[in-house]
Amino acid sequence: MGGFRSGAGLLGAYVPRGSVVHRAPAGLKLAALAVVSVAVLLVRSWWGVGALAALVLAVAVASRVGARALVAQLRPLVWLVPAVFALQWWAHGPARAALLSSRLVLLVALAALVVLTTRTTEVLAAIEHAARPLGVVGVRPDRVALVLALAIRSVPVLAALADDVRDAQRARGRERDLRAFAVPLVVGTLRRADALGDALRARGVDD
Predict the structure, then answer these.
(1) Cβ atoms 48, 36 nearer than 8 A
(2) Burial zone of 112 (CB within 10 Å; 0-12 exposed, 13-18 middle, 19+ buried)
(3) N or C: where does the chain have the smaller number of CB atoms within 10 Å of the terminal CB?
(4) Mean pLDDT lowest for which of 7-16, 53-62, 90-99, 161-170?
(5) What secondary structure does DSSP assign to 146-191, as a single string?
(6) What is the value of pTM for the model shown?
């Protein structure tokens, strides 16, 4: 794990600030995010959505990370939310679709604020510490932390790749060609996965 931590900062979207949110322990922030996420999943009213929106706004203002950094973390939802909204509208009607989509956006925004205000090394350390009891059944806490950290970072990386593919499509005048989007995206994703695997092996993570 120590070999990987030397380069862990490359995996995060951390925005350095001196806010109270930044100074809060990573474990506390992750635990609070988990509790809020579970609570929101149980909420079925716009009052709950409003409370979550107020919480996200308060954390965003307190963290001082800036709107641009937060919006950048939400860009992957540009493709996901319309699909979720359409599916929920078809299955449950517009009111349910709007409620679910709003909760999704706000929860992702809250998770993004945790990422923006917490160094990846701190996230790794907190997850590794929480997973230590699993060591008695053969689970390696350092690997658990690594997998989760990579999953967090993969979202903005894949979103940036999708934007590059879209730009290439527009340059060739093939905006509506699904295959021209899907094939380069899959190939690019696999290449990045291979490069990441090589980087991890070079750091001795597979030892």
Answers:
(1) no
(2) buried
(3) C
(4) 7-16
(5) HHHHHHHHHHHHHHHHHHHHHHHHHHHT-TT-HHHHHHHHHHHHHH
(6) 0.67
